[in-house]
Amino acid sequence: MGYSANSEIKQAMEQAHASRSQALFSGVSWLFGLCRAATAGKRLGKAAGLA
Hints:
mainly alpha; 0% strand; rod-shaped
């Protein structure tokens, strides 16, 4: 009985870790996309200013 409870806890912790790393990855990719959009906006602004 103690073994099955232990394996269930281990499985739950692994699932939590996987979802946390997935959330972290999506957050990082979202920030990266935001930075790329800001950089593109600055370039467009400079191009519009020069034109």
